[in-house]
Sequence to fold (159 residues):
Amino acid sequence: MSWDMVIVVDPDQDDAEYSFAAASMGRTCRAMTEAGMLVTVDPPVFRKAAEFGFTMDDLVRYYQAGPDSPDIPDAFYEMRRANQAARDRAVEQPTGIPAYKFASNDRWLVSPAEITAALAVYDGLAQAEQDELFGSLGDWDGWIAFLRRAVDRRGFRVE
Fold:
């Protein structure tokens, strides 16, 4: 399993993607959490299939049918839009990137404000602290450069 971070604006440019393998993502998240760049906040509440009038078996059938199937009700697409809106929601007055956004690769949007808050924490660390926390991580400088680019390009998605 891997995590692909894809910048929102101009995602086809060469510098618009950053990928993590599962092991390196875990190490990076632990270091970012220890530094205070990843923060614990409650994740959004997702709407349930029953609220839209169908069961989990219906959901499986709709996903298997594919997006062009005439058998998929409009309520299915309404549910998907509502749940994507929950994934797109930014934390008000963030102090870092919400850790739950890195817990899965479900197209979470990490907002410029969340990234800026995380970078402020990082930039506030003494060089010795940065070296201790992040020195053993392979391409830490590349990750930080990606985060800085993403701020001006409406954030990034975790895919």
